[in-house]
């Protein structure tokens, strides 16, 4: 019966492909960059756009819920209190698009090339959460909804979802659900569908190193006054040892050491280091000694400088000994490493290693907790079936390196199962110039979501 | 007799102070930044301005000599072939003014505050070379010239004077002189006049470190792919050891070790480390172990990062693992260290320490040779007398940390004595925001230059 229902929705989706794509393009044209205040108007516009699309798709009610930051768009359709409820989470904000000059086409003017959609947010997360809006439309317009559906689409994921936590805590009843369904991750490949069973947490700080109180002539002072850029490089370099091991005291205290057996399963995922290096045009991979690439991304924490700047960075040569140097540094965390605690460890350590000839300031940005998703929940099993239907393959559980801070939040505050059913691919280049998303991924994602609803309804 | 002549010129200078200052302001309003192509028109305008002022001041002929880069302004007045000839060298180009936001008043709108002229180039070198134009005017308008005078004012000093060398080699006869007189350095203080007897050389390179072929998501790849910013920090950090000693093989091979006796004389120059730290607002000085601050600046080479950039440097947080990171690095050199040789040592070393998981590119910018000036030349003795007249003190010989590459060039190509009679002060903040020059320094400089001509005429 539900299979039959699903078929109607699948047909609807098949018949409305062009319309679905055009709507996504309209959404991608809105530069909703949450990190940069100059796009504030656009972020709000994206929220309005989504509210309207939810109404058009058939929700009973949709609302824009204001927060201290950017609003959360909420919508729901309750067909039967006794049926399971799927809460769809997604985010309508996107990463900054710079450096713009590296884009082959303007980031906010979506185009299709070689069956891929090119635009900032094409995959992360507009292209992915919008599949749920269209899957819902297909089911609702064909009266084939088999679960209650709730939508919670936020606008601050790329800057830490700070206000979502308050919203979730204050709306536990409204958000009551049997599973939080999220498409904001990637699969191994089109041939090897996978479901994310774990995510890393994040700690993000900005550091400022101050030497002299003004920029100096590097001839008159060079050699006699500490150069804050050299000092910053020394300090950053000292944060890892020659084995790629992070030197912050206590950093690894809560990091779980996995059994060789578990690591072996993890390493069973198809992975070619040669292809990986070729695709990135690097001669060698590099990471923490003693771990494979899959382990380094999946089960080990890491530290990366995401940005650095100081002194003269214009054309030509300027012999300046600058007053200040800056860096943005983030740490990816694994289960049990708490973001706030790691941030504090970093702040303490960075201050402790600052030599007396400079002053340092550390400003924490947003953080997020890591998460492990049950591979034995009704939702996970329903997802496995949905993939089996659409891809004729059982999806592999994977550990992703990225962070979706709110997964831990949902598990904690809503006591919900969370399902990370992502349809992205590594080559989507999210957070990079020329971000893209496969047209096929978009449509097969919609179908898989429709099938999931059918199986999840029965699974309960 | 010459004292009498000098007096007429000194009076003329006294009577024309306002006009002198207004002219300097007109020159300072021209943003002749040689490092940045977008100011090209202004650099050429500055050259025309100077040619006209030389004519107004009374030269027999003035010309704009084109080069492969920016032109050299040449002017001369030969009163008697048998009299000594003073060749005045200066530069009309200035350092870039950024960061603009740190200026209290616009860099190219000169203002006087607390008897100081604030503008880019106020001291380096417009304010200083223009003293010679006005001193010449004072002597020529009062028929009290006692030496032949030649002017060679270039527009590429801040970017390496590359074309000046060709010009000098091709115009040896035209530039024939008994001393090259340069005001582009500083004195110890108004109470302690000094003459620069040594300058450091310069080697300047730009480095590029490339990791993956595109910016990556630091979650999906962080820990498994080398981050070019982290790697650049490691490489820069490794260029100096814990004693501030530069680790480039062969870097110190030609560095002279001075006798304790010589070092003691050097350290006799009045210097208060407390005042120095207070003025720069630092808690401690830092430099090569085993040397005093005066020695670190005067007789030791050094390495400074003048600029660094890579990744996301906008507002907020972006979790990017960038494809590239860059730095501008300069080395100050001491006598016997040849700029080209040191640059090559750097290039070889930097490439040799590059790990196999990144690609590095090193691009040399301009360089310059160090110089030692005789403290026993007729010119130096005449300068001592000139300071004695005007300041009632014998000037101290000092070793400056800065570089004026062409000093070595003049000594080599023109076989000339060079005299570095600078009237700047450390607090002038050249190359920094809010560069300034004391109004008193400007006028006392003009007087001292006039007196120098008188003594130098007799010294021959």
TrEMBL record, chains A, B:
GO terms for molecular function: metal ion binding; peptidase activity. The keyword Protease applies. NCBIfam families: PRK07907.1 (NF005914), PRK08201.1 (NF006053), PRK09104.1 (NF006579). Keywords: Hydrolase, Metal-binding, Protease. This is Dipeptidase. Gene3D superfamilies: 3.30.70.360, Zn peptidases. SUPFAM superfamilies: Zn-dependent exopeptidases. One of its GO terms (biological process) is proteolysis. Residues 199-357 form the Peptidase M20 dimerisation domain. Transmembrane segments: none annotated. InterPro entries: Cyt/Met_Dipeptidase (IPR051458), Peptidase_M20 (IPR002933), Peptidase_M20_dimer (IPR011650). It comes from the Bacteria.
